[in-house]
Specification:
- The protein is an all-alpha fold.
- It has a single domain, classed as Glycosyltransferase, CATH 1.50.10.20.
- Helix content is about 40%, strand content about 0%.
- It has a two-stranded antiparallel ribbon with strand order 1-2.
- Helix 2 packs parallel to helix 5 and helix 7 packs parallel to helix 9.
- The two termini are about 25 Å apart.
- InterPro entries: GGTase_I_beta, PGGT1B-like, Prenyltrans, Terpenoid_cyclase/PrenylTrfase.
- It comes from Turnera subulata.
- One of its GO terms (cellular component) is CAAX-protein geranylgeranyltransferase complex.
Length: about 375
C-alpha cells in the first residue's frame, strides 16, 4: 500500500481518526459530480490510485494503514475489480502485521495482552532505548480489517494462529460486557463490541467473548427513541445502531427479516428502531446519523444496513437516496462526505456499499452484517 495510511464521527471499526485529515485542503476548489450515473470505471481508477499510492494528506493516518487498505481492497471487490490486486503480496503484508506471543505464550496471555494485528508497520517499531512504545500493541479495529482483507483475497483463516487470538481476545472484554480496543486501555463502546463479534464470527470461534454479557451491554445501549447510543445512556447514533444490530445478528440473537417474525419477543424494541432509522432519511434523499444533522454519504450504509437487517429497506425512497449519493460523486472517482466536496477513501468505500445495497448493476452484493461482499463473507 502507498506511502502512508474512520468513522463518521463514530465509526464502528475505527478509533482516533480525524476524518478531516483524510481530505484535501479546503482552499482547493470543490469537485462536482461527474454525471447523473454511477461512474464505475472512474471509481475503479480512484481505488487503484489509493491502493498504490495514497496522497500525502493521509500521512498522519499511517498508523491506520490496515484500515485504509481494507477500504481500497474491499472497495475494488465491490466494484468487481479484485483482479487488479496482487493477492499474494497483500496476504504476505497483512500476515506480517500479526502480533505473536514470545516462547512462553501462557505468561504473555496472563499479562492481558491481545494478540491480533497491528495497524501498520510503524506500530511494530520498538523505541531507541529498547523499551516498547506505548502504541506498540495490536488493536481490535486493525484485527477486524486484517481478517476482512484476508477473506476478501481468498486466504483461509485456518492458516493463522486463531487460537491465541481468540484466547487473548477475552482479555479485552470488561465486566459490563463491553470491549477495550487495546489492552493498555481506551474507551469502550459499541464499535469494539462489533469488532470482537465480527472477529469471532470470521474465526468461527466464540471462545473469545462472553456472548451473554456482550448482549446485555448492547441492549442497555438502546435509547428511548429506538436507536442505539455508543454507550448506555448516550444519544442514538447511526454508527452505534449499526454496531448493535450487526453484532446481535452475528452472535445469533436476531434472526433474518425481523418484521416477518414475532417482533414482540425480540430482545430489542424493533418497531421503535425501525421508525428511528426511517426518520433518518432527510428531505434531500440522503441519510443522517442523528436528528437535525446534515445528510452524509456513509450513513447511507450505516443506517441503510440496519434497515436491510430488519427487513425494512424496502420502505426507503431509493431513487432519492441514489440522487443524493450522486451529488457526492467526484468527477475523478470516489465519494465525498457532503455534496460538492473532495472525495476520501472512507466515504468512497461506504458510497460503494450503499450502491451495492441499491443493487447497482455491475457491483457485487454485500453482506451487511460482516461488512464484506457476500463472496468474501461466505
Amino acid at each position: 500500500m502507498g506511502t502512508s495510511p474512520p468513522p463518521p464521527g463514530r465509526d464502528p471499526v475505527e478509533e482516533e481518526v480525524d476524518e478531516t485529515l483524510l481530505l484535501p485542503p479546503p482552499s482547493s476548489p470543490p469537485l462536482p459530480s461527474s454525471s447523473l450515473e454511477f461512474d464505475r470505471d472512474r471509481h475503479v481508477t480512484y481505488l487503484q490510485m489509493m491502493y498504490h499510492m495514497l496522497p500525502h494528506h493521509y500521512q498522519s493516518q499511517e498508523i491506520n494503514r490496515l484500515t485504509l487498505a481494507h477500504f481500497a481492497i474491499s472497495g475494488l471487490h465491490i466494484l468487481r475489480s479484485l483482479h487488479l490486486v496482487d493477492k499474494d503480496a497483500v496476504v504476505s503484508w497483512v500476515l506480517s502485521l500479526q502480533a505473536h506471543p514470545a516462547d512462553d505464550a501462557a505468561t504473555h496471555l496472563s499479562t492481558g495482552q491481545f494478540f491480533g494485528f497491528y495497524g501498520s508497520r510503524s506500530s511494530q517499531f520498538p523505541s531507541d532505548n529498547g523499551k516498547v512504545l506505548t502504541h506498540n500493541h495490536s488493536h481490535l479495529a486493525s484485527t477486524y480489517c486484517a481478517l476482512a482483507i484476508l477473506k476478501t483475497v481468498g486466504y483461509s483463516l485456518s492458516n493463522i494462529d486463531s487460537k491465541t487470538m481468540s484466547t487473548s481476545l477475552r482479555n479485552l472484554q470488561q465486566p459490563d460486557g463491553s470491549f477495550l480496543p487495546i489492552h493498555i486501555g481506551a474507551e469502550t463502546d459499541l464499535r469494539f463490541v462489533y469488532c470482537a463479534a465480527a472477529i469471532c464470527f470470521m474465526l468461527e470461534d466464540w471462545s473469545g467473548m462472553d456472548k451473554e454479557k456482550a448482549k446485555e451491554y448492547i441492549c442497555k445501549c438502546q435509547s428511548y427513541d429506538g436507536g442505539f447510543g455508543m454507550v448506555p445512556g448516550s444519544e442514538s447514533h447511526g454508527g452505534g445502531t449499526y454496531c448493535a444490530v450487526a453484532s446481535l445478528r452475528l452472535m445469533g440473537y436476531l434472526e433474518g427479516d425481523l418484521l416477518l417474525g414475532n417482533v414482540a419477543s425480540s430482545i430489542i424494541d424493533v418497531p421503535s428502531l425501525l421508525e428511528w432509522c426511517l426518520q433518518r432519511q432527510a428531505s434531500d434523499g440522503g441519510f443522517q446519523g442523528r436528528p437535525n444533522k446534515a445528510s452524509d454519504t456513509c450513513y447511507a450504509f450505516w443506517v441503510g444496513a440496519v434497515l436491510r437487517m430488519l427487513g425494512g429497506y424496502k420502505f426507503i425512497d431509493s431513487n432519492a437516496l441514489r440522487g443524493f449519493l450522486l451529488t457526492c460523486q467526484s468527477k475523478y472517482g470516489g465519494f465525498s462526505k457532503f455534496p460538492g466536496e473532495f472525495p476520501d477513501i472512507y466515504h468512497s468505500f461506504y458510497g460503494y456499499t450503499a450502491f451495492s445495497l441499491l443493487e447497482e448493476p455491475g457491483l457485487n452484493p454485500f453482506c451487511v452484517e460482516l461488512g464484506l461482499t457476500d463472496a468474501a463473507a461466505l
